[in-house]
Automatic annotation (TrEMBL):
<feature type="region of interest" description="Disordered">
    <location>
        <begin position="1"/>
        <end position="29"/>
    </location>
</feature>
<dbReference type="Pfam" id="PF23635">
    <property type="entry name" value="Beta-prop_AT5G49610-like"/>
</dbReference>
<dbReference type="Pfam" id="PF00646">
    <property type="entry name" value="F-box"/>
</dbReference>
<protein>
    <recommendedName>
        <fullName>F-box domain-containing protein</fullName>
    </recommendedName>
</protein>
<feature type="domain" description="F-box">
    <location>
        <begin position="27"/>
        <end position="71"/>
    </location>
</feature>
<dbReference type="InterPro" id="IPR056594">
    <property type="entry name" value="AT5G49610-like_b-prop"/>
</dbReference>
<dbReference type="InterPro" id="IPR001810">
    <property type="entry name" value="F-box_dom"/>
</dbReference>
<dbReference type="InterPro" id="IPR036047">
    <property type="entry name" value="F-box-like_dom_sf"/>
</dbReference>
Length: 393
């Protein structure tokens, strides 16, 4: 018999016994673990095709469209593969990457029939415009090797209106992927350059939207568009200053924003760029210095231009002999401007202000950066094309 206050051994044993431990967490499936590893390969063109050559199991994973969507989402911004040049007789592609990621220029180059000229490049698509009425628009997918010809809106091609610029983009859900849907915006003017109009085409509906127009005295220039948020923006010289023409893709509204008065109207020194917060901004070159401006609400809630940042380009001075710097392009995903000098073209990153040389081209020529996720199953810089990389397993 136990004394008062003492516990029997049986009661002690019951007290020590707790609820059963939860079963150990199951380890991830071997294929799921492999997917997570392959997901972290660098987004270079050779990464997934090389992985596909290891074995059929790896090939099955990296060629799965769902994995490729996750791969693009994981890396976010696509790599800069190279750029197209504005040439009146062809549209040469200048590759940027080193082997084995270097894409042969011949694979992404296309002769321009009917003297078509390039007017935009975005989301893996290139847009061309024929110079004479009836003006034809050509949307080209260099990776898929597909072309789509569009007839411009009749109201903007009747002899009194002239299409002089445009833009191409994929819907947000299709950026950087093989989605066949796209949108095209065209910018037109009247004979006297006193009226500007914009119209939007959707490949999903196959129709053009209602035309939006503004009365504006301006000079048409060939500088390409910039995508700011969900708006397409073009730079237009107006009298002794410049304005930004902005078309909202959601609201289908057309607005004009004047640049600060001290900015001289020289389109080779100006380019529309996004501000650090993603809003509207622009860069202005003066000799070997640049200023970044952005729109910001003032104390009364009205949007005004404010100087955001200054960039020193003195390191590029030795590359210039006869003239100062000129802007020839903008890489949206890389947030970098392309700067022309006497000795070649340099890419200058706006956030870090670092730069690197892209080419030895010394003649002023607009550049259209091609930023895209090169999908698995296509040829890379080894002479293969189409699905030959996979077929050689």
């Amino acid at each position: 018999m136990s004394t008062r206050g003492e516990m029997s051994p049986r009661r002690c044993r019951r007290r020590r016994t707790g609820p059963p431990s939860p079963p150990p967490a199951s380890l991830p499936d071997a294929d799921d673990l492999l997917r997570e590893i392959l997901l972290r390969l660098p987004p270079r063109p050779s990464s997934l095709p090389r992985a596909s050559l290891v074995c059929k199991r790896w090939r099955s994973i990296v060629s799965d469209p769902q994995f490729q969507r996750r791969f693009r989402a994981h890396h976010g911004k696509p790599p800069l593969l190279g750029f197209f040049l504005d040439n009146p007789f062809s549209c040469p592609f200048v590759p940027m990457l080193d082997p084995p990621d270097r894409i042969p220029g011949a694979r992404f180059s296309m002769p321009l029939y009917e003297s078509n000229r390039i007017i935009d490049c975005r989301h893996g698509l290139v847009l061309f415009l024929s110079p004479w009425p009836p003006r034809r628009l050509l949307v080209w997918d260099p990776v898929a090797r597909e072309q789509r010809r569009l007839i411009s809106p009749p109201e903007l091609d009747i002899g009194q209106m002239f299409i002089f610029n445009g833009a191409v983009l994929r819907p947000a859900r299709g950026q950087g992927c093989s989605s066949g849907h796209f949108r095209v915006a065209v910018v037109a003017r009247d004979r006297a350059c006193t009226r500007v109009s914009v119209c939007l085409y959707s490949s999903e509906t196959g129709i053009w939207s209602n035309i939006k127009s503004l009365q504006l005295n301006f000079l048409p220039v060939e500088q390409t568009s910039t995508l700011i948020g969900n708006s397409l923006c073009w730079l237009l010289p107006v009298r002794r200053q410049n304005v930004i023409l902005e078309f909202d893709l959601d609201k289908h509204t057309l607005t004009v924003t004047e640049l600060p008065a001290p900015i001289e109207p020289n389109y080779k020194k100006l380019w529309i760029v996004p501000a650090e917060d993603g809003g509207l901004g622009f860069i202005h070159l003066s000799q070997f210095h640049a200023k970044l401006w952005k729109r910001k609400p003032d104390s009364n809630g009205l949007d005004v231009w404010v100087l955001n940042k200054a960039i020193d380009f003195e390191e590029l001075r030795p590359t210039c002999i006869g003239y100062s710097l000129a802007l020839v392009g903008f890489a949206e995903e890389s947030n970098a401007v392309l700067v022309q000098t006497d000795s070649g073209v340099f890419m200058v990153y706006l956030r870090s202000t670092g730069f690197k040389k892209l080419s030895n081209l010394s003649v002023f020529c607009l550049h259209y950066p091609f930023e895209y996720f090169y999908p698995a199953g296509t040829g890379i810089g080894d002479g293969h094309g189409g699905d030959e990389v996979f077929n050689n397993i």
